[in-house]
């Protein structure tokens, strides 16, 4: 190794001769100079520093472990020096694996693992105690007797039953962990449409969905062509909370140009983007270029709600548009809403439709099947 030993051991031998014919045992190297715990392999830059001489070399590591020099046939003197018959007095057998691993039993990793093991044992002991108590606890059976209040509860409408069940469920549930059904969300949406201030007041007294939950519920509604969608049901629920004065509405419809494209909808398993006028025209395989949107707006109060939409080619036929107008009027009448006017722009197809329905400047109204009259206007 090129390291010159003390004169007591080397005698008059040169460094080249020592490097060629002699080797050092593992006891002359610190623990930090080995590559593994078994001390069977040195690092490439290992330096021997452990010698029993008057002025030994300075140790490379400050916290050097105490070496235990012992062999099966060796005799240890009072100075803890090994006397071997065939080797020099500084050579000894490498420490065993058990003694080397004893040094690392207090390593940080083992301390963490020992702590985790202690926690797991403690939890296991608590689980055993709980299981033992459950097994030895007598089961008491109660006979459910329907009281008068429960019988009266069954007579309530389903919406009220759902509301009270929601409040009872919220007793043992955190506010952030509460889950609401679609019926409860629609009920909360109707209260919010009636008065946002009243909804905020009731939200402090009862467990009601937050504004973010209602927005997410509205965004997840099924919106398809025609007047039969979740938007129609939301409008029907909103109409129940309106007063007689607030039930007077105006019907608005308008067409808009679309960028022609086809899109596959996974939930419905269909391709969206074709011409789709529902029951108001025969099915077509052409790509839609125009959309027609119907909307309802209040007169006495500022609120508006979409009713339905359709996809058409370049223009909606006048005959189909007449059927759509009459259908939306009948739909609003079924919701106890009173349409007073139809508002649209001066597109040629819209003017032709209203003219065919008998609307003129001198006679600006039509009569529906229920006998009610609505006003037709050209904006």
How does this model look, in words?
With 379 residues, the chain is an alpha+beta fold. Strand 9 (365-367) and strand 10 form a beta hairpin. The protein has helices at 7-10, 15-21, 97-103, 108-135, 148-154, 158-169, 182-194, 196-205, 211-219, 230-240, 318-334, 348-356; strands at residues 75-76, 82-83, 248-257, 263-265, 270-272, 290-298, 304-312, 338-344, 365-367, 373-378. Helix 11 crosses helix 12 (348-356). The strands form three sheets. Strands 7-6-3-8-10-9 form a six-stranded mixed β-sheet. Strands 1-2 form a two-stranded antiparallel ribbon. It has three domains: 1-108, no CATH class; 148-217, no CATH class; 242-378, no CATH class. The chain is built from twelve helices and ten strands.
Please describe the topology of this protein.
Blueprint: H1 7-10, H2 15-21, E1 75-76, E2 82-83, H3 97-103, H4 108-135, H5 148-154, H6 158-169, H7 182-194, H8 196-205, H9 211-219, H10 230-240, E3 248-257, E4 263-265, E5 270-272, E6 290-298, E7 304-312, H11 318-334, E8 338-344, H12 348-356, E9 365-367, E10 373-378
Parallel strand pairs: 3-8, 8-10
Antiparallel strand pairs: 1-2, 3-6, 4-5, 6-7, 9-10
